[in-house]
Specification:
The protein contains eleven helices and six strands. By secondary structure, the protein is α/β, with parallel strands linked by helices. Bound molecules: zinc ion. Zinc ion binds next to loops.
Length: 299
């Protein structure tokens, strides 16, 4: 049972809280089972209140296992680049209005997909997937290959924040990943699932951790669920990401700044009720996944 947090740095606060809850009250494990907590894949982003890592790379767009796909950007991202990534410090510039205009012109879904898909063309831009595999993912991949090569079954949960209704979770499958049926997983987790062969998701991503897992663990049955805990509106989250990115690249970049505080609130709201919900939802998903994973295990 593998629980991953902090792929997106600043999102690790909620993931850490869930892991502390799991350490306080661990799930029941069989003698040959294990709970693995990956605490913060992107520690730089957590320390500096960034979603990206020390090279401005979005690690959930960086898990490419093949060479030769480290270039390019969706055509619509290229058109949106001046709007998304202005080369100037944070300033009021009618972003919401201009983004809405882009949505009217190109379609809201197309704009959302182009932004979140991942891009390898603008190294200072949002959702940059990098020009090579980053050190964090490299260490993680090496560790997985060394330590889990004998595993029969791995259920991985990758916990994120920022998408979906406030204080509620959305469970997202990765297309082509997983051996169990959607119905079986939904019954086990007692939640609806999105993505993969389940209901459609807001956008699809290239170079995600989840897509890489089955190829890294070819001897195991791999299940993967990305858990999103909703915070605020998509506009508020994307605006906060954009302002923090400007402050990082074109301002002084220190953490004691309004752009950093806004991003922290966008991805880890201060309200105790939200934080309680995030920790509880994170731990509960692991309890259910572990119960299912180890019940299915062959004696
Ligand atoms: Zn995330």
């Amino acid at each position: 049972m593998l629980h991953i947090t902090g792929v997106h740095g600043v999102e690790a606060f909620a993931g850490s809280a869930a892991q502390l809850a799991l350490l306080t009250a661990p799930p029941t494990l069989p003698a040959d089972g294990a709970l693995i907590l990956l605490h913060v894949l992107n520690p730089y982003g957590m320390a500096w209140l960034r979603r990206a890592n020390e090279h401005n790379v979005d690690l959930n767009r960086n898990f490419h296992l093949d060479s030769g796909i480290w270039t390019g950007a969706p055509p619509l991202y290229k058109r949106l680049d001046p709007l998304l990534n202005p080369a100037s410090p944070p300033a009021r510039d009618a972003f919401a209005l201009r983004l809405a205009a882009a949505g009217m012109r190109h379609g809201v879904h197309a704009v959302r997909q182009a932004i979140a898909h991942g891009q390898h063309r603008y190294p200072r831009g949002l959702f940059y997937g990098g020009a090579e595999l980053q050190p964090g993912p490299r260490l993680f991949i090496d560790w997985l290959r060394q330590r889990l090569d004998m595993a029969e079954g791995v259920f991985a949960v990758d916990m994120h924040t920022g998408l979906g209704p406030h204080g509620e979770d959305t469970l997202i499958l990765e297309p082509g990943v997983g051996t169990a049926s959607v119905a079986a997983l939904q019954a086990a987790l007692r939640r609806p699932l999105r993505g993969g062969s389940a209901a459609p998701v807001a956008y699809t991503v290239r170079g995600s951790l989840g897509a890489a897992l089955p190829r890294l663990l070819p001897g195991a049955r791999v299940e993967f669920v990305l858990q999103e805990i909703g915070t605020w509106s998509t506009l508020r989250v994307i605006s906060a990401l954009r302002e923090e990115n400007r402050w990082h690249h074109f301002g002084e970049g220190d953490v004691d700044h309004a752009a950093k505080r806004r991003l922290l609130e966008a991805l880890c709201p201060a309200s105790p009720a939200w934080r309680d919900a995030a920790a509880t939802l994170g731990a509960d998903l692991v309890y259910r996944a572990a119960a299912w994973l180890f019940a299915e295990r062959q004696p």
